[in-house]
Amino acid sequence: MKYIITLLILVTIIGIIASCQVKDQNKSAGLEGISILDIPLEKPEMEEKINFFELVAKKATWNIKGESIEAWTYNGTVPGEEIRVIEGEWVEVNLKNELDEPVTIHWHGMVLPNVMDGVAGVTQNAIQPGESFTYQFKALEAGTYWYHSHQNGFEQVDRGLYGAFIVEPKEKSYDKDYVLMLDEWDVGENNRGMMNSMMGDGSTPGEMDSQMMYQTFTVNGKSAPNINPIDINAGEIVRLRIINAGYQKHVLYLNDHSYRIAAIDGKEVEGNSLTTDVFIIAPGERIDLEFTETGTMDWFIDSPNAVEEAKDILIPVNIAGVEEENYASYRDASQLKIMDISQQGKMDSIIDPNQEPDIEYTMDLSAGMGMMQGGMTYTINGETFPDTEPIQVKKGDLVKVRITNNSMLDHPMHLHGHYFQVISKNGLSLENPLVKDLINVEPHEQYEILFIADNPGDWLFHCHDLLHATGGMVTAVKYNGYYSSFELGGEYHNEPE
Predict the structure, then answer these.
(1) Is 108 left (phi over 0), alpha (psi -120 to 50) or beta?
(2) b/e map of 261-279 (b: 16 or more CB within 10 Å)?
(3) 223, exposed or middle or buried, with CB in 10 Å at 0-12, 13-18, 19+?
(4) 328 φ, ψ to 5°?
(5) Could you tell me the fold of the domain covering 359-492?
(6) Residues 66-113 pLDDT 10s
(7) What pLDDT is attached to residue 8?
(8) Alpha-carbon distance 347 to 141, whole Å?
(9) Which has the closest alpha carbon to 85: 47, 124, 140?
């Protein structure tokens, strides 16, 4: 009996010591507070609708411009299966991995609980070959979003692991809508010099590195003349949901058709006038536009970008009952006007720009030669991820970030889990603040943004030219009092970028 009591006391002491050691280890690793796994999650009520989707990550043969390539896909197509729900409905997506390496799904632009964000090594472990993972969340806000892998993102998104995620409004302003996902591929011959620029204006393109990698542009996984047409009726109001899934800016022209910008990054735009200008969409960005079909001839949407592969973008617009075609397009790209997206109507402000911030953070972006991807490093404040200094916040903080691009390359900076308000550009306040989750910072530009730290967890803030992200241009927003127990690398081979 004495032996048993002594043994019980010894076990208790060992347990206490072990518990202290775990606490000490967590403390030394910064793991004090609440695990992101313990943040309460809202669950659907019995009467609420749940939309179920099954996605399988697998290899598939895909044809682009007559060449068969091995693509990595969700459900065998590029883009992957379109997910479409109505605002307020629940979504449950089961992802099964049939690839030979780990994958995840990140729900780009969606403000979700941290553990549903799909970032390997930050909000979950990467899903191993042969395994599955279920994402469940409520689609709170109507808008155009997309999904893609956030495990070894540069390679996996580049190979085709992405798709559109559309949350329809309960009341629509349009009769029909179409999704156009833009991308670049390494297919065919490189027929242009790396210094070609947007609209042929002779300026630095900001994309010299990625322009050297790709020779083909696609719309919904196909190049002209194999792009599926937009079929509409005369008099209909049409919304085009344009998503840039690639690593370069894209230029689109509606051939003098008047349209209005309806939404940017999922947020509605009000009070804007009609325009016929061309517009540029940055990597990771979404732009919705609406037009009323009043034409008497079929027409097409094309790209007046000066690069040779822009010819791959030729999207037919077919009007029911009309046989005549309009082959007219731009003749002198230099005469076309590029729309200023910041001057297109008003977005509902989410923050008073005159309010004093609780936290200020300076984000200096730069690029140079190094030992990272392609011999280049892409830095934030002189450091590469995971050594970049995170933005430390507490719940409720108003955070101001000043982003300055000191490089000769574009950096489309994307914040997970939050919307931010753009309050100034190059030192000048914006009359109509933009509300976005991604801002493309061109060479030597500076933006100031505000966001409210109202969604606890660990969130990435990174360049969505994923060549730059994998080269180091990534930091994190970390909430005091919360921690992630997931780790980069390790047995799950977690590689978020």
Answers:
(1) beta
(2) bbbbbbbbbeeeeebeebb
(3) buried
(4) -70, 140
(5) Immunoglobulin-like (2.60.40)
(6) 999 999 999 999 999 999 999 999 999 999 999 999 999 999 999 999
(7) 35
(8) 15
(9) 140
Task: Look at 276 and 7; give whichever has higher pLDDT.
Answer: 276
Can you spell out the DSSP letters for 282-295? -TT-EEEEEEE---
Burial string for 40-79 (b: 16+ CB within 10 Å, else e) reads eeeeeeeeeeeeebebbbbeeebebbeeebebbbbeebbb
**Residue 206: what pLDDT?**
84
CA distances from 100 to 13, 153, 337 (A): 45, 15, 47
For residue 31, what pLDDT is reported? 58
| Residue matched to tokens 């798709």 | 163
Per the CB < 8 A criterion, the answer to whether 238 and 174 are in contact is yes
Whole-number Cα distances in Å, 287 to 284, 298, 368, 465: 10, 23, 31, 17
At the fourth CATH level, the homologous superfamily of domain 176-343 is Cupredoxins -  blue copper proteins (2.60.40.420)
Amino acid at 377: T
Helices (H), 153-296: 153-158, 208-211
The candidate with the shortest Cα–Cα distance to 449, out of 428, 424, 432, is 424
Q: Which helix (H) or strand (E) holds 267?
A: strand 267-268
Mean pLDDT of the chain: 89
Contact 202, 236 (CB under 8 A): no
Quick: pLDDT tens for 141-161: 999 999 999 999 999 999 999
**pLDDT for residue 131 is more than 80:** yes
Tokens of 186: 């390494």
Check pLDDT > 80 for residue 32. no
Question: What local confidence, expressed as pLDDT, does residue 325 receive?
Answer: 78
Greatest mean pLDDT among 186-200, 236-250, 269-283 = 236-250
Pick the CATH number of 50-168 from 2.60.40.3500, 3.30.43.10, 2.40.50.100, 2.60.40.420: 2.60.40.420
Mean pLDDT along residues 57-67: 97
Q: pLDDT at residue 183 above 60?
A: yes
Sequence ranges of the domains in the chain: 2-32, 50-168, 176-343, 359-492
**Parallel, antiparallel, or unpaired for β 230-232 and 267-268?**
unpaired
Strand order in the sheet with 299-302: 230-232, 314-319, 299-302
Spell out where 65-115 has E strands. 67-74, 80-86, 90-97, 106-108
CA 488 to chain centre: 21
Q: What is the CA radius of gyration of the chain?
A: 24
* 320, 302 Cβ separation under 8 angstroms: no
Write phi, then psi, for 100 (nearest 5 degrees).
Answer: -90, 5
The answer for 305, left when phi > 0, alpha when psi is -120 to 50, beta otherwise, is beta
